[in-house]
């Protein structure tokens, strides 16, 4: 069984006089350890789809199944980790306190969680700064702390809403490599929303391209094994990268003419 199943999901936004179709008949599956990117023109419903998968929005039609249980079930939300464009660290809390926010909300903090937080700090390259505050860290370090906060709850699925878009290009490249390596280490499944074709290519096993509103699946691109075996930075230099980029760019550019 797949870890995640998105089954014939459609979503409409209603106003007093009319309604807008945001998504139409979206279906795909995601396996354990697999990375899928959702790509498409602005306004095609990418973030809406991510919110539906997270159980934050109930779809107009269709269903989301995570590990054979409906994502609408309250307990199933705890099995997902959501990482946003901004780190949203609390400035009055230390980095370690920010990382332990999930267990604190769930009232599961004990000595093992505190030890886990120290371990996560080390694994994301932030050892020795657990007592620092967010405004003492660079943007890249803050996003690493946000990643540690997401992973400490040991989610089955990571939902990534353009988590690197606010960073400078050099930091973005470094974090792509870091996150890719960490997800492979933990064998985590991830669903990424991005506008960046290059990022989608180097991070993903598959890319799902959505049409403009209403968002429908236009095409699915499967990345070749030789790219998935190397780091995202190395994948950008691989001989096959440009041809894949050109293919995805061509399809996406055609959609933006609608």
From TrEMBL:
Coiled coil segments of this chain: none
Gene3D superfamilies assigned to the protein according to its UniProt record, in alphabetical order: P-loop containing nucleotide triphosphate hydrolases
Keyword GTP-binding listed: no
Domain ABC transporter residues, every copy: 4-233
Keyword NADP on entry: no
Residues spanning the membrane: none
Pfam families: ABC_tran (PF00005)
Gene Ontology MF: a single term: ATP binding
SMART domains given in the database record: AAA
Protein keywords: ATP-binding, Nucleotide-binding, Transport
Protein name: ABC transporter ATP-binding protein YtlC
């Amino acid at each position: 069984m797949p870890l995640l199943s998105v089954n014939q999901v459609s979503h409409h936004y209603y106003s007093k006089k009319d309604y807008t179709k945001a998504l139409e008949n979206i279906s795909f599956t995601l396996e354990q350890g697999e990375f899928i990117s959702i790509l498409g023109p602005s306004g095609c419903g990418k973030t809406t789809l991510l919110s539906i998968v997270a159980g934050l929005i109930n779809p107009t039609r269709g269903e989301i199944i995570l590990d054979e249980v409906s994502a609408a079930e309250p307990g199933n939300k705890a099995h997902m980790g959501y990482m946003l464009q901004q780190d949203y660290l609390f400035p009055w809390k230390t980095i370690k306190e920010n990382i332990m926010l999930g267990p604190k909300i769930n009232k599961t903090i004990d000595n093992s969680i505190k030890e886990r937080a120290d371990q996560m700090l080390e694994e994301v390259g932030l050892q020795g700064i657990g007592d620092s505050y967010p405004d003492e860290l660079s943007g890249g370090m803050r996003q690493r702390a946000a990643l540690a906060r997401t992973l400490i709850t040991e989610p089955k699925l990571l939902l990534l809403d353009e988590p690197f878009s606010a960073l400078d290009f050099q930091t973005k490249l470094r974090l792509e490599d870091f996150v890719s390596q960490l997800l492979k280490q933990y064998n985590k499944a991830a669903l990424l929303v991005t506008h960046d074709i290059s990022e989608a290519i180097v991070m993903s096993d598959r890319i799902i391209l959505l049409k403009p509103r209403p968002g429908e699946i236009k095409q699915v691109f499967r990345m070749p094994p030789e790219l998935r075996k190397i780091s995202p930075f190395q994948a950008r230099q691989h001989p096959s990268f440009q041809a894949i980029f050109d293919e995805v760019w061509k399809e996406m550019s055609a959609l933006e003419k609608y």
